[in-house]
Amino acid sequence: MRRILLWFLTTVSTVVLLFGYKTSTSSALPDETATDPTTPRAAAPTTTSTPPTTGSPSTAGAAALRAGQFTGDAADTRWGPVQTRITVANGRITAVDVVEAPSGNAKDRAINADAVPTLVDETLQAQGADIDMVSGATVTSTGYLESLQSALDQAHAA
Amino acid sequence: MTAATGSRVVRHVEHVMGLPVSLALRGRHAGDAAGRAAWRAVMASLHDADRVFSTYRPDSAVSRLDRGELTLDAAPPEVGEVLALAERAERASGGAFSAWRRDPDGRRRLDPSGVVKGWAVERAAAALRALDDTDFCVAAGGDVLGRAEDPDRPWRIGIEDPHDPCRILATVPLRDGAVATSGTAHRGAHVVDARTGRPPADVAAVTVVHRSLTWADIDATAAFAQGADAAAWLRRRVGRTGLVVADDGSVTVLDGSGPISWAQIS
Questions:
Q1: How far apart are alpha carbons B52 and B198 in whole angstroms?
Q2: Which of A14, A32, A59, B193 is the most exposed place for a label (fewest CB within 10 A)?
């Protein structure tokens, strides 16, 4: 089921990649492409396999992106239509929004919700939460002995 | 027989990179020779990552790169991979996250530590994924990666309270994915906002749940570096859920319903 979600995400992966690449609107950064020639670029943001946009901006390259909002045509997927919208400012994509998502989303939402942290009731705390591992701020080896993870390892030791 | 039918959990603990690494295995290979060999492979992979990436070892590839004694082309290929991840994170976070920091004397230093841990553990865990009918859960210095084959028996991950690390603030079930937390509870202020060079304000801890530990770890650090903007930024990241704890102890739960997560936006 989670695969369905992942599959969908890959269908908009280019958009997502662009999103990941170009959200730095605060522009304290110099031109990213020029800062560090030693660092390889995993994907060029110029390849727009995004759905054709109603505003039909030039797809020649990031530098040629026109400012404004562009809504892609709905793309049919096995799970229903997907439509996205991008916002461009100063030649950069500053936002990617999903305008329309497959209607079978209640299930997906439930799957997603399942991976959401649940706050522990303080009154239950004293009895100890039934957990296997702990995620927390980086514990160093010296701090480990004091840590909860250490307690768990010992508690579960055969 | 599936992994779920074996209830016995076998645990291992070792230290590498100055961090404790804990492993829990259950199912077919928990406690057998294949399970132990996989654990040795995990540790060997992490020691290898330490040799390449440690900023504490003067002879590591990263230290030599930093001193200009090594070019990226001549460095092991995983260095380029990690630096590319760092660059993506820097762009995605508007520069709050960076693999570069400034010395007190102003010199620019290479420090990809914010990327290396999650990436290295995820790479090392390939040996565990290869164990058939076996559930694994590995925790390295507060970052957790796990797989449970039976959806009804997820690993249960506790999220530490940054204001009282002996308490658990929340729990999250883990079936195939990762939980990473960035905060100041154990080591003090070691994450800075790369735009200002100062520790972020108004945030005590950020926890990110995501299928990839590499990105859960990066996003937790990148969100934490943004201080009060952590939750707002994380909401915009695809496929992440999590928790942001403010300095005053107030908690924001991120349920994944950000602008990209199926919301109807018109």
A1: 28
A2: A59
DSSP letters spanning chain B = --GGG---EEEEEEEETTEEEEEEEEETTTTSHHHHHHHHHHHHHHHHHHHHH-SS-TTSHHHHHHTTSS-TTTS-HHHHHHHHHHHHHHHHTTTSS-SEEE-TTS-EEE-THHHHHHHHHHHHTHHHHTSTTEEEEEEETTEEEEE-SSTTS-EEEEEEETTEEEEEEEEEEESEEEEEEEESTTT-S---BTTTTB--SS-SEEEEEES-HHHHHHHHHHHHHTGGGHHHHHHTSTT-EEEEE-TTS-EEEE-S-STTSS----
Q: What is the pLDDT of residue B23?
A: 95
**How many whole angstroms from its chain centre is CA B42?**
16
Domain locations in chain A as residue ranges:
43-156
What torsion do the CA atoms of B15, B17, B20, B22 make, to the nearest 10 degrees? -80
Cα–Cα distance measured from residue B112 to residue B85, given in angstroms and rounded to the nearest whole number: 9
pLDDT in tens, B225-249: 999 999 999 988 888 999 999 999 9
A20, A99, A129 member nearest B88 (Cβ): A20
Find the closest chain A residue to B224 by CA distance. A137
CA distance A63 to chain B (A): 16
Identity of residue B71 = T
Mark yes or no for CB contact B207/A117 under 8 Å.
yes
Q: CATH assignment of A43-156?
A: 3.90.1010.20
| B25, B127, B129 from B29: Cα distances, Å | 8, 12, 11
Which chain B residues have a beta carbon less than 8 Å from that of A62? none
Q: What is the CA radius of gyration of chain A?
A: 22
Q: Is B176 in contact with B213 (CB distance < 8 Å)?
A: no
Structure-block tokens of residue B22? 């804990």
Q: Per-residue confidence at A89, pLDDT binned at 50, 70, 90?
A: confident
Kindly report the nearest CA distance between residue B1 and chain A, in angstroms: 22
Q: What is the pTM of this model?
A: 0.71
* All domains of chain B in start order, with CATH: 9-265 (3.10.520.10)
Structure tokens at B249: 């102890």
ipTM, interface predicted TM-score of the complex: 0.85
Neighbours of B106 (CB within 10 A): 6
The residue with greater pLDDT, B88 or A154, is B88
